[in-house]
Amino acid sequence: MPGTLSLPGRDLTLAAIRTANRQGHRLALTAAARRRIRASRAIVDRLHDDPTPRYGINTGFGALAHKRIAPADIEKLQENLILSHAVGVGDEVPAVIVRLMLLLKVNGLAVGLSGVSERVVDYLIRFYNEDALPVVSAKGSLGASGDLAPLAHLVLPLLGLGEMTWHGQRLSARTVLKKLRLRPLKLQSKEGLGLINGTQFMSAYAVHCLLRIDNLCRHADLAAATTLEAARGSAAPFDARIHAARPHAGQRAVAGNIRALLRGSKILPSHADCEKVQDPYSLRCVPQVHGAVRDAVAHARSVVEIEINSATDNPLVFPDGDVLSGGNFHGEPLAFALDYLAIATAELASISERRIYMLLHGDTVGDLKVPKLLMQDTGLNSGFMMPQYTAAALVSENKIFAHPASVDSIPSSLGQEDHVSMGSISATKLLEVVKNVETVLAIEFMCAAQALEFLRPLRAGRGVEAVFREVRRHIPFARADRLFHHDIQTALTLVRGEQLPAAAAKNCGPLL
C-alpha cells in the first residue's frame, strides 16, 4: 500500500516531496490544517452579506476592484473569474509538474488564510490521489498576481470544465468527474480568487528542478572525477588544506567527494614524474565551480521551502476576522532564485563541455596513450568529435536561457498591476537548462569511459572504477563509429537515475 504525505500547511520540505514522489504517496491533510481551513472559511461566510466592500469577496478583481458585486451574483463572479483567466497558451505543463502544482496548492490552502472551503481542497486532493491531472498550458503567467492563467487551468475541472488526463486517456473534465463520482462545484465567495492567486506554478517548477539539480550536482562530481582519471590529472588541487583556506561549504563538499572517488587510484601515481605542472581549470577548479553551484542550490532551496509553506494569495483572511489585501502573490523571491539557479546550473554544463573538449586532444604521456578523438582509426572514423559538438550547442543554448527574466516587467490590468516578476518565465526556462545540463554530463560520461579504456591495465580510484563499470554495463567501448545518438540517450538515462552515485558510494563510502 502506498504511504501518505500529510500536508500541514507548514514545514513541508523538498526531501518529503522527493520521498512522496518516489514511493507514490497519497495526499492527506493534517487535522490542524483542516481546522484552520474551516475557521478561515467561516470568517468569509460571515462576510457574505456585509455591506462593506471587501476585495475578492464582494468586489470585482484587478482594475475592476471598485465594482461592487451583489450577493446573488457571488457564485457567478467566481465562475467567471476562473473562465476569464484560463487563457494559457503554448506547450502543456509536464504531468509531473502538474502533480506538484496540485500538491503545493493544497499545502498553500492548508496554511488556513485563504478562505477556501474544505470541500474544494478535498477535490484537489482527490485529483492528485487518483492521478486525474488537469491539462495546463505553460505560458500566460506574469508571475505577479499569482500564476493566474496556469492556476485557472489547474482548477477548471472543479467546475467540470477543461480537460484532464486519467489512466493514460485525455478526457473532458466532466467525464473524469463522473468516473470519480464527483459533481462539478459551485464556488463560493473568495474561493475562485483563493485558487488562482498564488505562486504554485512557479513553485512547482522550482521544486521539480531543484530535485533534478540535486541529482545533477552528484553526477557532475562523478563525471569530473572520471575525467580527471582519464586525463591523468593531479589529485593535489583537492587537498583538504586548500579548501579549509577558503571554506565555502559547497567547495569543501565537492573536494571531499573527489578525494573519496579517487582513493586507491593506480592511474594517478603512474605519471607522478611527468612534465605537466598544473591541470586546466576545468579539472583543477572543479571544487570551486561545482561547489559554487551547490551553494546557489542551497540558497534557492531555502527560498523555495519558505514559499511552499506560505499563503501566497490575496486577500488573506486572518483568525481575528481581518481580511487584508497585500502582495504575497508577487513572485519576485522565486523569480530571483530561479534566475540564479539557471545561471548556476548552466555552469555545470559549461565546465563539463571544457573537460570533454580536453579529452578529445588525447594524451601521449608514457607508454599508455589515449588517441585523439578517443578512437584509434580516425580519418575513416570521426571518433567522439560530434558528441562534443552537441555538448557545445547545448552550452551555447544555456547562455540564452540563463538571461534573467526577472529584470523585465510589463504593466497589466490597466496599470493596477504595474510591476510583475516574470518568474513564470524564469521557471520554464530553468527546466530547459536542467535538461541540457543532464545531456552534457551524459556525453562526458561516455567520453571519459572511452578514454579510460586506453589506460588499461591501470585502474582508477575505487569510486571511479565503480562508475566506469556501471557505464560499461550499458554502453560498450567504441572501436569504430556507430550511432552515438543511442549511446547519448542511454547515458542520459543513467544521469537522470541513481545507479551511478549508488555504485560509487558502495565502493568508496557515502558522498555528499
- DSSP strand content: 5-15%
Individual helix count: 19
Overall mean pLDDT score? Answer: 95
- What is the terminal-to-terminal distance? 31 Å
* Biggest sheet details: 3 strands, antiparallel
Shape: elongated
Helix coverage percent = 40-55%
Q: Which class best fits the helix and strand makeup?
A: mainly alpha
Low-confidence stretches: none
CATH level-3 fold name of the largest domain: Fumarase C, Chain A, domain 2
Write the CATH architecture name of the largest domain. Up-down Bundle
Summarize the helix and strand pattern as letters: EHEHHEHHEEHEEHHHHHHHEEHHHHHH
Describe the structure.
The chain folds into two domains: 195 residues, Orthogonal Bundle (Fumarase C, Chain B, domain 1), CATH 1.10.275; 304 residues, Fumarase/aspartase (Central domain) (Fumarase C, Chain A, domain 2, Up-down Bundle), CATH 1.20.200.10. It is 54% helix and 6% strand. It has 19 helices and nine strands. Strands 4-6-7 form a three-stranded antiparallel β-sheet. Strands 1-2 form a two-stranded parallel ribbon. Helix 9 packs across helix 11.
